[in-house]
C-alpha cells in the first residue's frame, strides 16, 4: 500500500495518542494529529480502511534484552529464557510476554534477542485497537524505530522542549512533561521521562570515565556521541561539563522519524499468543457468502442428479434382468448369458433359421403365420426353417387329429398366404405333417 497509517499508543488509556499518515512512494506526510486518549481511536477507523496500519508502543513498557544461550535449538532457547531472566524481572514470568527477534549473533556474541512486556499491557493495546475496528499488521517498540548508528546514541523528545537564554547568554531549559526515546544499539534502547533522562546520561558518563581511568591503552576519555533529532532537556549543560559530542540532526516530527526508519527493523510484537488472525473485509465476506450459497446449490444439484442416476441404474439393472430371464425362457439350453452378448446371440439364432440378411422377411412371415397358430392352438410347431431366396417358411408341426392340419391350412389361406401341405404321418395317437408357406406376392414374383 502506498499510504501507511502510523499510530503511537500510550501506556494508559488516558495517555495521548499520536497518528500520522505517511506516503511511502512520495516519502511525505499526508496528515497527522493527536487524540486526547485511547477512547478516541475510533476517529481513526475510517483512516485505517484500505491502509496498512503500524503501531508503536512506549519503550518504557518493553524491555529489550540480549542473552547468550548455550543451545542452537530455538524451542529450547525460548523455553529457557524466561527462567534465565527470572531474578532480573520484577514480575512473575507467567505474567510477562516474551517476543523474540530473528537476529544473527552480534559482535558481543549474544545469540538471543528478546523483548519483554506485560501480558496485560499487550492485551490492553489490542483491546483498544479492536474496539476501534482497526486491524494492525505490526506493533513495534518505538525504540527500535529510531535511527541506529553503530557506537552512537540516537535520541528524540516526544514533546517539544522549551529552551530560552539567560541574560548572561547561558541557556535555560524548562521542559514540559515529556519523554525521551533513546536507541543505543541494534537491540538496546529505552524511553525515559526528563528527570530519568538526565540521571541516566550522568550515570553513563560516570561509568565511561571510570572505565577510561582504569584502562591503560589510552589517556583520553572516550566521548559519547549523541545524534539528537530534537532539542533535548539539559543536554547542552551536560555536554559542556563532560565533553559529550552532540550531532544535531534536522528536527523532525517524532512520529515521522519513526515512520521513516521503522522499516529497518522487522521485529513485530504480534507473535505467539498475540498473533493477530487476519479479519476479512466485508466485501470478501460477502463474496464468501455468495460462494458458500453457490457451493450448497451445486451440492444439492449433484445430489439430485446422483439420486436420479442411481434410480436409472436400478431401472436398467431391472430391465437387463428381465431381458436375460426372457432369453433363458426362449432358449433354456443357453449358458453364460450376458446382456452385452444377447443381441449377437439372437442374430445367430435367426441366422440359423434363414440367414441374417433375411431377418426382415422371416419376421414378416412369422407375423402373418402367428394368427393361424392362435386360431388352431391344438397344432404345435416342431421346427421352423426360412428360405430367404424363395421367401418360403417351412414348418413341421404335430397335432392330435388330421382336422387340425386342415383348419390351420384354411387359416393360412385366409391370411393371404400360399400353402403347400406335405405328407402327414400317424405316429400313435399324434399326427405329424409339414407345410411350405409363402406369401402370394412372392409366389407371383417367382411365376
Mean pLDDT: 82
Structural class: alpha+beta
Q: SSE string, helix = H, strand = E?
A: EEEHEEHEEHEEEEEEHEHEHHHHEEHEEH
Low-confidence stretches: 161-176, 215-221
Q: What would the principal axes of the Cα set say about the shape?
A: rod-shaped
Number of strands: 19
User: What is the fold-level CATH name, i.e. the topology of the largest domain?
Assistant: Nucleotidyltransferase, domain 5
Could you please describe the fold and organization of this structure?
By secondary structure, the chain is α+β, with helices and mostly antiparallel strands. The chain has eleven helices and 19 strands. The chain has helices at residues 45-48, 74-84, 119-131, 194-214, 235-242, 254-261, 282-330, 342-354, 359-375, 402-414, 440-446; strands at residues 3-8, 17-23, 28-35, 52-57, 63-67, 96-100, 112-118, 138-141, 153-157, 161-165, 171-175, 179-185, 188-193, 225-228, 245-248, 380-387, 392-399, 417-427, 430-439. A five-stranded mixed sheet has the order 3-2-1-4-8, covered by helices on one side. Strands 13-12-9-14-15 form a five-stranded mixed sheet. A four-stranded antiparallel sheet has the order 16-17-19-18. A hairpin with a 2-residue loop joins strand 18 and strand 19 (430-439). Helix 9 packs across helix 10. The chain starts with a strand and ends with a helix.
Concise synopsis of the structure shown:
This protein is of the alpha+beta class and 447 residues long. It has helices at residues 45-48, 74-84, 119-131, 194-214, 235-242, 254-261, 282-330, 342-354, 359-375, 402-414, 440-446; strands at residues 3-8, 17-23, 28-35, 52-57, 63-67, 96-100, 112-118, 138-141, 153-157, 161-165, 171-175, 179-185, 188-193, 225-228, 245-248, 380-387, 392-399, 417-427, 430-439.
Amino acid at each position: 500500500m502506498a499510504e501507511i497509517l502510523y499510530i503511537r499508543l500510550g501506556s494508559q488509556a488516558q495517555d495521548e495518542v499520536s497518528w500520522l499518515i505517511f506516503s511511502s512512494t512520495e516519502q511525505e506526510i499526508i496528515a497527522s494529529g493527536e487524540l486526547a486518549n485511547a477512547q478516541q481511536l475510533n476517529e481513526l477507523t475510517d483512516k485505517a480502511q484500505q491502509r496498512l496500519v503500524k503501531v508503536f508502543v512506549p519503550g518504557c513498557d518493553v524491555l529489550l534484552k540480549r542473552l547468550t544461550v548455550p543451545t542452537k535449538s530455538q524451542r529450547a532457547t525460548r523455553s529457557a529464557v524466561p527462567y534465565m531472566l527470572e531474578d532480573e524481572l520484577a514480575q512473575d514470568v507467567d505474567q510477562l510476554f516474551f517476543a523474540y527477534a530473528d537476529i544473527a549473533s552480534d559482535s558481543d556474541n549474544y545469540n538471543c534477542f528478546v523483548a519483554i512486556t506485560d501480558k496485560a499491557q499487550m492485551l490492553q493495546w489490542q483491546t483498544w485497537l479492536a474496539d476501534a475496528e482497526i486491524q494492525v499488521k505490526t506493533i513495534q517498540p518505538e525504540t527500535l524505530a529510531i535511527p541506529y548508528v553503530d557506537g552512537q546514541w540516537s535520541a528524540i523528545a516526544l514533546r517539544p522542549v522549551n529552551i530560552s537564554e539567560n541574560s548572561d547568554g547561558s541557556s535555560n531549559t524548562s521542559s514540559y512533561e515529556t519523554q525521551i526515546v533513546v536507541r543505543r544499539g541494534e537491540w538496546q534502547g529505552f524511553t525515559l521521562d526528563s528527570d530519568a533522562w538526565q540521571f541516566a546520561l550522568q550515570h553513563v558518563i560516570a561509568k565511561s570515565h571510570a572505565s577510561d581511568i582504569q584502562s591503560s591503552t589510552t589517556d583520553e576519555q572516550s566521548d559519547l556521541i549523541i545524534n539528537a533529532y530534537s532539542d533535548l532537556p539539559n543536554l547542552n549543560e551536560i555536554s559542556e561539563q563532560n565533553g559529550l559530542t552532540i550531532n544535531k540532526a534536522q528536527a523532525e516530527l517524532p512520529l515521522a522519524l519513526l515512520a521513516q526508519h521503522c522499516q529497518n527493523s522487522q521485529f513485530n510484537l504480534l507473535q505467539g499468543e498475540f498473533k493477530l488472525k487476519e479479519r476479512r473485509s466485508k466485501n470478501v465476506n460477502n463474496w464468501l457468502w455468495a460462494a458458500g450459497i453457490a457451493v450448497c446449490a451445486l451440492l444439492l444439484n449433484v445430489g439430485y442428479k446422483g439420486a436420479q442416476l442411481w434410480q436409472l441404474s436400478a431401472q436398467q439393472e431391472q430391465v437387463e434382468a428381465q431381458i436375460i430371464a426372457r432369453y433363458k425362457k426362449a432358449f433354456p439350453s443357453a449358458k453364460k448369458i450376458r446382456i452385452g452378448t444377447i443381441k449377437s446371440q439372437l442374430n445367430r439364432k435367426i441366422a440359423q433359421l434363414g440367414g441374417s440378411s433375411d431377418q426382415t422377411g422371416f419376421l414378416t412371415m412369422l407375423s402373418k403365420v402367428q394368427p393361424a397358430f392362435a386360431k388352431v392352438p391344438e397344432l404345435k410347431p416342431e421346427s421352423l426353417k426360412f428360405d430367404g431366396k424363395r421367401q418360403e417358411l417351412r414348418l413341421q408341426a404335430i397335432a392330435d387329429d388330421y382336422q387340425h392340419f386342415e383348419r390351420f391350412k384354411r387359416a393360412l389361406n385366409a391370411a393371404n398366404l400360399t400353402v403347400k401341405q406335405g405328407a402327414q404321418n400317424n405316429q400313435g395317437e399324434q399326427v405329424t405333417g409339414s407345410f411350405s408357406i409363402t406369401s402370394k406376392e412372392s409366389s407371383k414374383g417367382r411365376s
